[in-house]
Amino acid sequence: MITASSSQTIFALATGAGRAAIAIIRVSGAESGQILKTLIRGSLTPKRASLKKIIHHDEVLDHAVVLWLPGPNSYTGEDGFELHLHAGPAIIARVADALTDLGARPAEPGEFTKRAVQKGRMDLIQAEAIADLVDSETESQRKQALEQANGALSNLYNSWAERLRLVLANQEALIDFPDEDLPPEVEDALRAEIDALHHEMSEHLTDQRGELMRQGLTVVIAGSPNVGKSSLLNSLSGYDAAIVTHRAGTTRDAIAVDWVLEGVRVRLIDTAGLRETEDEIEAEGIRRALFHVKQADIVLHLIGPDEELTSLSSEEVAIRTKIDLSPAPENMLGISTETGLGLKELRNLLKEKISSLMAGSGTPPLTRARHRAGIQESVVHLERAQKATWPELRGEELRLSMHALGRLTGHVDVESLLDAIFGQFCIGK
Ligand code: GDP
User: Member of which family (predicted)?
Assistant: First the structure.
């Protein structure tokens, strides 16, 4: 098996496949300069666009705008270049062949960004944000990914890691020099700082915004059969996704429609009507409906004209349907998909709910399960440090807590710990 070498020069089509005016091929690696020279029969000023003939084996393959992007201040940190070609598939194929011929190989998925991380151009959290930026479909996803790519979340984690480093430095000093005259406040300050960090990180874990924005949130429409659930899904989403009939029990499986409200991706789910049934397929639909209700961020619980309001959980919003037939009781939102009455109010109510779910604490939110797991691990070690009676054990837990944070950004750095220890105390031994 041939394994891809991380030192080899790589290339990839950076623009999408399909009919387009321009295709960009990106190249990165130590041999980029030599390869470019061969292809354009000359050299270029860095970061300046120039129109050049791309020549291989004495044949002109295309006229392209070429950018020479030498490291270390390039995306990957390596030497690289870009060819802005005409997007014909035959041109792209010939240029790819030429690059291979000259010693480059096709890049693996994410390899440019992986190299950027390895060269210290960005950390892991920023690299994840680049992937999110490319995938962003809504305004809130774009903003969040851009902030994260600019280092907002990394800065938060680095500042916690830095504070932990100082706590650890103090702890190490208490362990190593128990007889020296370290002021008693050192121990108190150390405990207070561990408590403060524990509090801040635990708060961060309760913040769901990042994951909600990235993955979108779920709004489930639930209620008895025939209450008007499918009609509401169709009205809100603007097209006939669900079948509407007067026959009860028509919606067997959940129907999902993706929707954007307030710049946030919303998955709107219509579920099977909740009722007692002998029908096996309908019963399965109801089981799935209850599952969706449990997972939902917001549940719109529809109530028909001849139904009583049952007790609702805090995520559930009661909505009276078919108000063209009879009015909604006071203090309950009423809608009619027949006349459109109340739908604007319902949209506004959803917008408010979404805004309050997205309301944050001012710190950047975590966006992935990996971040949550890392912070959780860090918090567990802080809790153990809080309880540890032996200073050595507390030191070890602090170290593990700091490492859990370091793994998140990809910086686990023992040298800087040593610097913090010796720098702060001027021990001179
Ligand atoms: P579901 O079983 O809860 O999904 O309900 P449907 O959306 O399929 O609607 C059941 C029946 O109620 C259909 O005949 C709809 O035309 C009717 N319906 C739905 N919404 C309204 C409404 O706002 N007013 C009136 N009068 N009828 C409605």
Answer: Belongs to the TRAFAC class TrmE-Era-EngA-EngB-Septin-like GTPase superfamily. TrmE GTPase family.
Handedness of CA 84, 89, 92, 94 (dihedral sign): negative
Domain-wise residue ranges, the chain: 10-123, 129-207+365-409, 223-358
Report how far ligand 1's centroid is from the alpha carbon of 267 (Å). Answer: 21
Ligand 1 in reach of 334 Cβ (< 6 A):
no
Phi, then psi, of 26 in degrees rounded to 5: -110, 140
Going residue by residue through the chain, which has 429 residues, state the pLDDT in tens, using 9 for 90 and above: 344 567 899 999 999 877 789 999 999 999 999 999 999 999 899 999 999 999 999 999 999 999 999 999 999 999 999 999 999 999 999 999 999 999 999 998 888 988 998 898 999 899 889 888 888 888 888 988 999 999 999 999 999 999 999 999 888 888 877 666 667 788 888 999 999 999 999 999 988 888 888 888 889 888 888 889 889 988 888 766 555 555 555 555 667 788 888 888 888 888 766 666 677 777 777 777 777 777 888 889 999 998 887 767 777 889 999 999 999 888 889 999 999 999 999 999 999 888 888 876 678 999 988 899 999 999 999 999 999 988 889 999 999 999 999 988 887 654 554 454 444 443 333
The CATH homologous superfamily of the domain defined by 129-207+365-409:
tRNA modification GTPase MnmE domain 2 (1.20.120.430)
**Burial (CB count <10 Å: 0-12, 13-18, 19+), residue 58:** exposed
Q: Which CATH code is given to the segment(s) 223-358? A: 3.40.50.300
- For residue 195 the two structure tokens come to 């408590």
Q: Give me ligand 1 centre to Cα 171, in Å.
A: 67
Verify whether ligand 1 is closer than 6 Å to residue 285 (CB atom): no
Best residue for ligand 1 mutational test, from 220, 224, 230, 231 (most atoms within 8 Å of Cβ): 231
Domain spanning 10-123: CATH superfamily: Probable tRNA modification gtpase trme; domain 1 (3.30.1360.120)
Residue 136 near ligand 1, beta carbon < 6 Å: no
Residue type for position 379: V
List the structure tokens of 148: 């994260």
Alpha helices in 222-279 (DSSP H): 229-237
Q: Can 10-123 and 223-358 be said to share one CATH topology? A: no
Sheet holding 255-261, edge to edge: 255-261, 264-270, 217-223, 298-303, 316-320, 333-334
